[in-house]
């Protein structure tokens, strides 16, 4: 990567300042220098960078798109709530140099390198913070201050002993490698060393056979264990000599336990591991509500950044509320409120550029309010032009392919994610039905045979006539308010009102979808739980937040997933338990935004009801046993007082069917956020493990007020890997907070 590159830092269309950016020799810090003042200051650490976007993939850079070509533009996205850094390089070559260089630094080829980079960066960052006089050395007083910053309340005599052991030069200060020695002594993992020595005959190394024993007995690896052990040694053993002898040192053992293979999340489930050839209604789909909003629902800011963030997070169902704008141009905003507006064309442009970055799975894009109430006005035709500009997206129903095959099957099946890769589906109003578009009007009155009971037959004829009248009236109204071209864009997700499960079963199609408020959904769950599950086995249902949630708060998605609702829309801009559950469920299967429902939720005749776990077909309850052993380098609570040290506790929460909802917590450890030890065992019984999510939460205990959030990690029970595992914690925003983690032991028994 070049150093001292002159680039423009862009904050708005009118604010564009030139800065010299350069990568420091440690390859961990980016510094910039003002061209005008020559003042140099630290800009950011590589460990703060989440990703790098190329081109006009931010609202700011889109506003200057006419001035600067996309090949010169890129955006640096940071973890947490820190704002993006939008930059314009002097040439396309310089931009690529920075983009590729940054990506290599933040996305190393293997997890061990990531772990090593994080550790190195973390050590350097702390050294710089504690080195008050900036002389490149640290005296004991500065070390004591450092321990406070690192959440460590250590006995002064013990701290001095570690300091003197690391001071090899006997200068009374630590510098360079001496500080690294001090850090390693500080982070000695006694619980890991004890586990290592339990399987090591000489206490210094694990032979290949000893490692195989550990993998089989503790990690429950039962296939290809010897090959796995060889692979782990080659991948994580830092000593070339040890690798040549096929042994694993204590350092290599720790590296393995801190790696992806040592994570609680089953590495085989990180990629695309589920069957993607089932009908769409057989999947849970990651879905957002009012995606364009990044703040509240009444006066909040509308931004394409909302779409970019949601898509990067794995969301596959977006909401695009279109309303008439000036000069016939549709605008996207929350109708009848004071939220700001963005042009529909900008949203379409963003979807075209970013929809397939993380996933090729279909994208049901919601357009709930078509612009204009009359088809002759310009808004709808302009919207159609924008939609048509999207490449390889909306499928024409008259074309050959999965649509015609599906209709030929009598609409008993529906297209699959595999068939609809790289397609955008629009949900909205439609004139008539899909069958009408292909083969002419349908929905004829049923043929009642002579064998039917006369009274029942007459009643059915009367109902059919009423339905026909209602259908004709609705069809005429749609024709008056909806342009045919816009109607033709709506294929699989025709929006229809929900009038009960019996009505839907008799007269609805898999190509139709109903939207329900959270309150309506809860009532149906309470009163007709099994019918709701059956309905969702053949038709899509969308759930949206109550209109009273003007602060963009969220409801729990779990109760909606319990009855198989596929599109459970959440406010992605609001952090909390609800979004943790969403991220936890969809972090599997390649983060494609689709998760296959359990078999008993894909059967239209299922007996399953979430309020009665015994209605589930399959084996009996299982027991989940979690030994919470230790924590490592837990972060301080935001805005805490200087010198304050957390008193951490761990709470394990189970979300699932009502019978499985539970939580237990450990005791709190006083004044130790650096390496707390709990060694406590928590146990849960799960009746429907296929629907369970497990959330690990670390909090700072407070006896006088509510505990403060420290970190969390959530995953589906199906993705848990038993054995000794590390849990790498996430922030309230769902972003990584390296190197903070928990060390646990997991057992699953029937």
TrEMBL record:
Stored PROSITE patterns: C2, EF_HAND_1, EF_HAND_2, PH_DOMAIN, PIPLC_X_DOMAIN, PIPLC_Y_DOMAIN
Domain of life: Eukaryota
Gene Ontology MF: a single term: calcium ion binding
Domain C2, first and last residues per copy: 602-731
Membrane topology (UniProt): Peripheral membrane protein
Compartments it resides in: Cytoplasm; Endoplasmic reticulum; Membrane; Nucleus
Domain PH: residue ranges: 1-107
Positions of the EF-hand domain: 118-153, 154-189
GO biological process per UniProt: intracellular signal transduction; lipid catabolic process
UniProt main location, coarse: cytoplasm
EC number: 3.1.4.11
GO cellular component, one term: plasma membrane
Biased composition (Acidic residues): 437-458
Keywords of this entry: Calcium, Cytoplasm, Endoplasmic reticulum, Hydrolase, Lipid degradation, Lipid metabolism, Membrane, Metal-binding, Nucleus, Repeat, Transducer
Listed cofactors: Ca(2+)
Region (Disordered): 355-380, 435-475
Ranges of residues in domain PI-PLC Y-box: 486-602
Reaction catalysis annotation: a 1,2-diacyl-sn-glycero-3-phospho-(1D-myo-inositol-4,5-bisphosphate) + H2O = 1D-myo-inositol 1,4,5-trisphosphate + a 1,2-diacyl-sn-glycerol + H(+); a 1,2-diacyl-sn-glycero-3-phospho-(1D-myo-inositol) + H2O = 1D-myo-inositol 1-phosphate + a 1,2-diacyl-sn-glycerol + H(+)
PANTHER family attached to this UniProt entry: 1-PHOSPHATIDYLINOSITOL 4,5-BISPHOSPHATE PHOSPHODIESTERASE DELTA-4 (PTHR10336:SF31), PHOSPHOINOSITIDE-SPECIFIC PHOSPHOLIPASE C FAMILY PROTEIN (PTHR10336)
Protein's name in the database: Phosphoinositide phospholipase C
Organism this protein belongs to: Motacilla alba
Gene for this chain: Plcd4
